From TrEMBL:
Residues 161-336 form the NB-ARC domain. Keywords: Leucine-rich repeat, Nucleotide-binding, Plant defense, Repeat. This is Disease resistance protein RPM1. Pfam families: LRR_14, NB-ARC, Rx_N, WHD_DRP. Residues 421-491 form the Disease resistance protein winged helix domain. Residues 5-92 form the Disease resistance N-terminal domain. Belongs to the disease resistance NB-LRR family. The lineage of its organism: Eukaryota, Viridiplantae, Streptophyta, Embryophyta, Tracheophyta.
Length: 891
């Protein structure tokens, strides 16, 4: 960790010297001298970290180095804080100069002391004879393709026989409700195995309902019930809206009634005790419909208590040949046979054997291999083997530590930061990227935004199996990821030792004043009073606590704070003291009850991200001083018919020329003209657009040459006039238009980078498939009330990249024709509420890789033709997953 701290400090000092160009000569000289010392120290700090594992003296020296680096970081941030504070007082000319003396004097004294300490640490380094950079990855890593993540199919290795056993239990003829427990140690592959079974064709065909719930050690019964309701209840929207005031017994009864006489499969993943089952068991009727409930747990005792007789399945470690196959499948995926070069096989097998058949450990060690050329493999293998030598029973945490130590310094901070989220938490890609940027973890690269660089970091952590993808968006990019609980345990352990963050989870945490970040999951009464001692906090993340405690914490003077993330926190207001956080880069009150921002909000001049999405804030304060603002989210809500409700902005928002994201702005004549000044926009969502403003809006969009996500929503009752967009942004990847179009604009034909297109309430007269089928990289197309015609036709070769097609509420549609050779990449087809469509799409039998067909509120005549004895069943029997919801079931 010292390597990461020192490298980031060097970058920060360089930026500081540039930004504060008018520093007094004595101050600048001291800072430049300190920079030189840290530049020398960072050249061998990685060797020091390697040796610190066996040399106590080196470990002590490293800790002192890190403390000095943190102190220097504090000096620069405090200096920035004081200068910003003085500027807000409004003094000018000589008064302003006089006011600057005190901060300079204090900084000069502290810098002299810091220079002395740095030189002392540097001089003592000569005693240890450090080498220059030691690393597995001496070659600069190849750029990662961030357009799509790659899901490695490692889960099939060594699991087929286990999978078949579980499938046989699920499909057994026994009519009684059967409870199955899958148990085994952490990292053994329980969740992966059950997920394989859950997604299998046998399970899809056998059950009417399937629900997957991740429980984890810190589960909330309210969240469990909410997840069940959202998956099972027909009138779920109304129920979810009133869940906070609904009696639990009533909700359980509703769930039970919806499952009566249904064959269901429920998975409760990562169960730590029996209490969660006791609290929800009433929802699951035992009415002899051959239903099944599957639990996964580390505790064999819990498994015995929960499972039906003889229904405990213990996952064993992989056999030697299975472990080797899994290792090679990842480490040597680049060659045609996924085989290890013969000259390295003995050494590689010895390393795999030390993983004791544990898939998580094998996957992580294999991840160390795949980034290296054949020439480097021998050195890498020997390095790993040396670290594991003489350890007869290597704990998995030690093996995972190898993956952490091998990370480049810039990824170590990013990885540890993910450990500050709760167990099993689904981390949004965009959120974590902006948090990393706000913390200063991301280096600048020419031709890229720091957010784009951060996305490369995220992809790299996933490719190394340090994080796991849990959800992708329609364009195939990572949408959510999570951290395996063993990885999280490791991150928390490292973070505590390095003062990287403190996590409060309800037990007696040791609060150290040197901690740099604070994550609140649950706060015990005994430690509330001790929070005031923490003065160096840079990030404050809140996930769950009571409103009173939260208000007290928010009001604390964490004056060096860079991140204040209150997403979903039970807070109703922001204290005025927030406006004194001059170093704040990131503020989120998304999905809170905050309804107004403090008046002096414009003082937060370093703010980069302001996320007000789905809060109760109705209007923005003056923001023209926030010149560093990059991301502004102001969608207030979504109404009952699915339209977004945005926010009007104060004048001159177009002065914020660094804005990359502007989502939720309400249109008017002035806005559509002036947004052309926001030339760096990547994502733009504009609402309530009037038809006569269309031409001006098109002229502005043409100036946004970096735009990759565009959403335009018409004023209710009006259409969209977008024909005049002569030259659309060449990098546009996502387009969502809501409003009457009548016909597709001509510029659609040149959208060669477009991946996702959603049209809603367009009421087109002409078949849109004929106009769109030549788009080369389109992967998702959604037409929702978008077409008034009766027929859709796709020609041979059309939509070569399309993966998902959704046709929703096309009221006149009665025929779909897909020529053989069209839509050859289609994997998911959804037909919803197309009431005149009584036959399957012609040519659906030629869609040989179609994985899922969903029919929601479709005519009974169509559903009858699809049944096993129906006239068209032969056309769809190759499709693994077919979901049917007839109209009658929803009345």
């Amino acid at each position: 960790m010292a390597e990461a701290v020192v490298n980031l400090l060097v970058l920060k000092i360089r930026c500081f010297l540039v930004e504060e160009s008018w520093l007094l000569a004595a101050v600048r000289e001291n800072i430049e001298d300190i920079l030189k010392e840290f530049e020398r120290l960072r050249s061998f700090v990685r060797d020091a970290e390697r040796r610190s594992e066996s040399d106590v003296a080196v470990a002590i020296w490293l800790k002192q180095l890190q403390e000095v680096a943190y102190d220097m970081d504090d000096i620069m941030d405090e200096y920035t804080y004081f200068m910003a504070e003085q500027k807000t007082r409004g003094f000018r000319n000589c008064f302003a100069k006089a006011l600057r003396i005190n901060p300079f004097r204090g900084v000069t004294i502290r810098l002299k002391h810091m220079k002395s300490m740095t030189q002392d640490v540097s001089e003592r380094s000569s005693r240890y004879g450090f080498d220059y950079p030691w690393s597995f990855n001496v070659v600069r890593e190849r750029p990662v393709d961030t357009s799509r993540f790659v899901r490695v199919d490692t889960d099939v290795v060594g699991m087929e026989s286990n999978k078949q056993v579980l499938i046989s239990w699920l499909t057994d003829e026994a009519e009684e409700l059967m409870k199955i427990c899958v148990c085994g140690m952490g990292g053994i592959g329980k969740t992966t195995l059950v997920a394989q079974v859950y997604r299998s064709l046998e399970a899809k065909i056998h059950f009417d309902f399937q629900v997957w719930l991740t429980v984890s050690q810190t589960y909330s019964i309210a969240e469990v019930l909410k997840s069940l309701a959202s998956e099972i209840l027909i009138n779920k929207d109304n129920v979810l809206k009133h869940m906070n005031t609904m009696d639990t017994r009533i909700l359980l009864e509703m769930l039970r009634q919806n499952l009566l006489k249904k064959r269901y499969l429920i998975v409760l993943d990562d169960v730590w005790d029996t209490s969660v089952w006791e609290e929800i068991r009433f929802a699951f009727p035992e009415d002899k419909c051959r239903s099944r409930i599957v639990f996964t747990t580390r505790n064999s005792g819990i498994a015995t208590l929960l499972a039906s007789s003889h229904c405990v399945f213990e996952v064993k470690p992989l056999q030697c040949d299975e472990a080797w196959a899994l290792f090679c499948n990842i480490a040597f995926r680049g060659n045609s046979e996924c085989s290890c070069p013969p000259e390295f096989e003995d050494l590689a097998r010895a390393i795999v054997n030390k993983c004791h058949g544990l898939p998580l450990a094998i996957v992580n060690l294999a991840g160390l291999m795949k980034k290296h050329s054949r020439i480097e493999l021998n050195r890498v293998l020997n390095s790993i083997n040396g670290m594991l030598t003489n350890v007869l029973d290597t704990p998995v945490i030690d093996i995972l530590m190898l993956s952490f130590h091998e990370l480049p310094y810039h990824l170590k901070n990013c990885f540890l930061y993910c450990g500050a989220f709760p167990e099993s938490y689904k981390i949004k890609r965009k959120r974590i990227v902006r948090l990393w940027v706000a913390e200063g973890f991301v280096e600048e690269r020419e031709g890229m935004t720091t957010e784009e660089v951060a996305e490369e970091y995220l992809n790299e952590l996933i490719n190394r199996s340090m994080l796991q993808v849990t959800k992708a968006d329609d364009g195939g990019k990572i949408k959510e990821c999570c951290m395996h609980d063993l990885m999280r345990d490791m991150a928390i352990s490292i973070s505590k030792k390095q003062n990287f963050f403190i996590m409060c989870e309800g037990h007696e945490e040791q609060l150290t004043a040197a901690a740099r970040r604070l994550s609140i999951i649950e706060v015990s009464d005994s430690i509330k009073a001790r929070f005031g001692r923490i003065s160096h906090i840079r990030s404050f993340l809140v996930f769950s606590t009571d409103a009173r405690t939260l208000n007290q914490l928010v009001a604390l003077r964490f004056r060096l704070l860079r991140v204040l993330d209150l997403y979903r926190a039970p807070v109703e207001s922001l204290p005025n003291a927030v406006c004194n956080l001059f170093n704040l880069r990131y503020l989120s009150i998304r999905r809170t009850k905050v309804n107004v921002l403090p008046k002096n909000f414009g003082r937060l001049q370093k703010l980069q991200t302001l996320d007000l999405q789905y809060s109760r804030v109705k209007e923005l304060p003056r923001m023209t001083e926030l010149l560093d603002l990059r991301h502004l989210f102001i969608i207030r809500s979504v109404d009952e018919i699915g339209l977004s409700v945005g926010m009007r902005t104060p004048g001159k928002i177009w002065a914020l020329k660094d804005l990359q994201t502007l989502e939720g702005i309400v249109s008017n004549n002035k806005v559509v003209q002036q947004v052309q000044n926001l030339k760096r926009l990547r994502s733009f969502v504009i609402l309530e657009v009037k038809m006569f403003d269309g031409e001006a809006l098109c002229a502005s969009i043409e100036k946004m040459r970096f735009l990759n996500n565009l959403q335009v929503q018409a004023m209710e009752g009006e259409g969209l006039e977008l024909e005049s967009l002569a030259s659309p942004p060449s990098q546009l990847q996502k387009l969502f238009l809501i409003g009457h179009l009548q016909r597709l604009p001509r510029w659609f034909s040149v959208l060669n980078s477009l991946k996702v297109l959603r049209l809603r309430s367009s009421w087109l007269n002409e078949d849109p498939l004929r106009s769109l089928q030549s788009l080369p990289v389109l992967v998702c197309l959604e037409l929702h009330k978008a077409y008034e015609g009766e027929k859709l036709w796709c020609e041979v070769g059309g939509f070569p990249s399309l993966i998902t097609l959704r046709l929703i509420e096309l009221s006149q549609l009665n025929q779909i024709t897909i020529e053989e050779g069209a839509m050859m990449s289609l994997r998911e087809l959804q037909l919803s509420r197309c009431r005149e469509l009584n036959t399957l799409p012609q040519g659906i039998e030629s869609l040989t890789i179609l994985q899922k067909l969903s029919l929601e509120e479709m005519p009974e005549e169509l559903l009858q033709r699809m049944r096993p004895n129906g006239a068209e069943y032969h056309k769809i029997r190759h499709i693994p997953t077919i979901d049917r919801t007839p109209i009658d079931d929803l009345i």
